[in-house]
Amino acid sequence: GTSQIGGFGAIIDLQKSEYDKANQIVTGIDGVGTKIEIADAMDDYRGIGHDVVGMCVNDILCHCAAPVAFLDYFVCGKLNRRRATEVVKSISEACIQADCSLVGGETAEMPGVYGPNQWDLAGCAIGVRQPDWPQLPETSKIQVGDIVLGISSSGLHSNGFSLVRKILQAHKIDYKATVPWGNSSFGQVLLTPTKIYVRSLLLLMRGGLIKGAAHITGGGITENAIRVLDREAELALDIDASSWPKDELFNWLGSMGPVTTKEMLKTFNCGIGMTLVVSKESAQSVKDALKKCDEKVYEIGKVVRRTTDDLITYQNLENAFDLAKYY
Amino acid sequence: GTSQIGGFGAIIDLQKSEYDKANQIVTGIDGVGTKIEIADAMDDYRGIGHDVVGMCVNDILCHCAAPVAFLDYFVCGKLNRRRATEVVKSISEACIQADCSLVGGETAEMPGVYGPNQWDLAGCAIGVRQPDWPQLPETSKIQVGDIVLGISSSGLHSNGFSLVRKILQAHKIDYKATVPWGNSSFGQVLLTPTKIYVRSLLLLMRGGLIKGAAHITGGGITENAIRVLDREAELALDIDASSWPKDELFNWLGSMGPVTTKEMLKTFNCGIGMTLVVSKESAQSVKDALKKCDEKVYEIGKVVRRTTDDLITYQNLENAFDLAKYY
């Protein structure tokens, strides 16, 4: 349970929570980056709270920690009530999805430092671990033949927006323009809130079915998936870039952008919000369990013996995206 | 101990720390507000990290929590290496003073959202409590006759800067101008880093010598000191506004500003960074112990029976500041 006595700080009472044996705290802080610009352009702040919560809780989840508390930092030049209300509502909803409590926050009005319409959003998630939970990543258990699973993202999540902006600007496309593959606007598609994987993954992690998990954020699959590997072990991830279906957004970005497929995989999550390393034996159970949680999950690669300096290699890069589609 | 495995979140292992029985987490998030503007005007970022750490750890300290970890959020339009380095160095030094570890952070470069020279700084402190430590404020123990102690601040700390800016602007005074009471510039005086009270206060709190502590931030003594009181109890704080010496900065602000003494006490810490409620019997030991820690401490008031709606009353308001001095 949480309470606010006196109100100087938020108190999280582990004794009164289901994690009364917790002996480790796992914590992470993050912002939503330039996704803010698109929320402003669309004047739509109903998802941005999911983004800040998702960025933080998905990170700590990678260490098999149960999120217990979240705090937000909302800063602006002049308080816009509707915006602030939508943001806080979105944060609150996301905290429910992440099974954590919004225990505190700082709302700062800083005229002079911020312009009247300027604002920013960051947050900090606090999770706990019980002594008998696996300490992920279990680098020493990861071995050749292990399977890499990818759980689908809900679009860009909260990374890669500087490149997206460049691509839209280069083609003189407004955020309110309709996407060529549907009826939504680019802004609406880009603002899709970050998926929160806590409820799908935590129990599987606690049950020992997962050896390592990587939240795919800035740096894309290329820079994040490898973070479960021990650099000393001569292992690498071999990923089949054509093994999961791509949202049209990613095909479009790949088609329109002055960006190679390799750069796509190093910038965007490209449809995979979380990668998992699991044993060959557990792969099917993990896939089945995730599907029961309404996750889309794909076998996207395997752990191989590393023969070069690269911790990650790709197969079928040429078929990763449907690049001809939007030319 | 803290470690970063995999690097998605920071792990704080309570089992390996001196707080291996901790069963409560206390946390707070805060920014440094418009003090940033003065740091920019003076191009001096050597203290601003102390401010963000101080704002957060002094808050959680009020609940008798030992800070164990700190995370910062540093955001800018374009990374200025010297500024970023000075800020992080300042945060690190302050974390040492607060006996906590800088376990993580987010450095965000957000061109487009922030101007090239624009930046901001916030942070989150995480503290823990052992089961046998007093849960402050001990509102039910606070009674008529208890003493209110004030520990001196190091200037404005990180609040009240919007009003300070107004006062300086009204008198067309540059931050680089020399103060009338010394050789420093206004900017230097205003940038004095926030005092961190962890080492002076935590052991006294743990020892049961303090019934309540209030970190004096935005809202000044008036709005913060009362936060240790149970609103249902018919108690109030009666403060002698002339009972502690005032830094010349506060005399100057009171003299020059279009601001009454009441407003001064409701905006600035006015020289008191932390107020404590202690029993009559413990007052002397607490004062002695704080003096040994090189704190300046004053008996500034007492707990009285409340007879009006006001949770705080002041004596000697007319002598609180030397208002004639800078006319």
UniProtKB/TrEMBL annotation, chains A, B:
Gene Ontology cellular component terms for the protein in this record: cytosol
GO biological processes: 'de novo' IMP biosynthetic process; adenine biosynthetic process
Key words of the record: ATP-binding, Cytoplasm, Ligase, Manganese, Metal-binding, Multifunctional enzyme, Nucleotide-binding, Purine biosynthesis, Transferase
UniProt keyword ATP-binding, yes or no: yes
Superkingdom: Eukaryota
Localization per record: Cytoplasm
A GO molecular-function annotation: phosphoribosylformylglycinamidine cyclo-ligase activity
Family of the protein in this entry: In the C-terminal section; belongs to the GART family. In the N-terminal section; belongs to the GARS family.
Protein name: Trifunctional purine biosynthetic protein adenosine-3
Residues included from the entire protein: 452 to 778 of 973
